[in-house]
Amino acid sequence: MAPAEFGAYLVVPDGFLVPLKETGGIYLLKINCNGTTTTLASEPIEITKPKRSYFYHMVVWQDMNGDGLLDVVTARVNDPILLGKPSGQLIWLEQPKSEPLDNVPWTEHYLVVDGPETVFVLTDLNPSDDQYEVFAAQFFTKHLGLYVFAAKNNSLLYSRYLDETIGPAYMVEVVDLNDDGALDLLVTNHVGGEGGGVFGYEIPTDLRNGVFKRHTLAHGFPVTESGSNQFAPGFAYSFKPHISYTGKPYILVAGDGSQKAYLLTPSEADFSYNKTIIISAGGVVGSMGFGDIIGNDGWAEFFVPGYDGNTIFGYTFAPQ
């Protein structure tokens, strides 16, 4: 969603499907919500300047220049079909100081000219050091990356590959996975055959030179979806089953080409989780949603989309 001051707008990164992709963009779509239905209320507003054959996957809202206005941080990628190698770029789009929905495209600033491509997380692990970090799951260039920036001017201080053996990294989240008070990385990769895995990485104190120790939280997500270019798993999401819950997070995993949704429940051993199949959806499960949706009772609900069957399955942790 766009910031509250915009009103009810959806943010749509566009152009991800290859090889039929066109030049993508970032669009704002005004919506009307009356409590029972949601409808589009305007034509899409493109805030990016078209860059041929580059497409987008996600957006983070962050004030990047200290003017009190939220800007857009996004990554884009060009994946040549025939010749050349993939190229990812991390950029931010400066929100205009007046009439942001009319003064388009927004001014574009480069953060990294060759690096993050699709999914990334922007975080500040140590607010006292005047820098911030971007962890990037780089699917097309097949590694997990770290990019560290100066907070005052957004200049890149250094970058490094954290794992070049993971293959096509697919998602990344910063969360304490073993309840020791220190933040970790939750990561998936996205491969064919027997599928990939869900991994945890310990974040060292020395980001520049320290070892990001890897732990396998779950593996064995065999691809069952027919057709070419089918991979598993998809995204993973850490959450609490109840608002009062303390301890290691629970993890939902969208199986993508495995046609299943999974729940990882924590066990006593460090970085240890048990994997359970929630549902065999009979089709791709590319992403999931969760939150306290029903009754405002503190219990989490989550939703599994069965893409091929045009069906959404809903579940709750609330006692029945």
Automatic annotation (TrEMBL):
<dbReference type="InterPro" id="IPR028994">
    <property type="entry name" value="Integrin_alpha_N"/>
</dbReference>
<protein>
    <recommendedName>
        <fullName>VCBS repeat-containing protein</fullName>
    </recommendedName>
</protein>
